[in-house]
Design brief:
The chain is mostly helical and 132 residues long. Helices cover 80% and strands 0% of the residues. The protein has one domain (2-131). The protein is elongated.
Length: 132
């Protein structure tokens, strides 16, 4: 439980750093007027909703990791690489592919989402490997 909660905080902080950097922030600002980009009236509602999703996902990831950890190599780095790749394959790639097929979300922003979710997934995997 603690590991999942900690992983959600890591994911939130890591993602915030990635999304709030100047280049990404400017890219979102430029594309805000496009029809595929949702307009949030208040950012507090967005961050609360986003964190709840991250918390649920991180708790679920912690449970899964605790079950598969005995079958992983002893090295924490290898555990993080293997589990992070699993997060990418089973969560990030399907999400990006589905979004690209079902919406008009701009491809440039979709690539940013893919890169940020992949890096965040590895950060979560590393956190779980250290704590479980």
């Amino acid at each position: 439980m603690f590991a999942g909660f900690t992983a959600s905080i890591v994911w939130l902080l890591f993602g915030s750093i990635l999304y709030l950097n100047k280049g990404v922030k400017n890219r979102y600002r430029i594309m805000r007027s496009l029809p595929g980009v949702k307009k949030w009236i208040g950012t507090s509602g967005f961050y609360l909703f986003h964190y709840i999703i991250l918390l649920i996902t991180s708790l679920f990831a912690a449970v899964i990791f605790s079950f598969i950890k005995p079958g992983l190599p002893e090295s924490i780095i290898w555990q993080a690489l293997i589990f992070g790749t699993g997060i990418c394959v089973f969560q990030t790639i399907p999400r990006v592919l589905e979004t690209s097929l079902r919406t008009t979300y701009p491809s440039g922003l979709l690539m940013i989402e893919f890169l940020n979710y992949t890096m965040s997934g590895y950060a979560v995997a590393l956190t779980l490997a250290f704590l479980i």
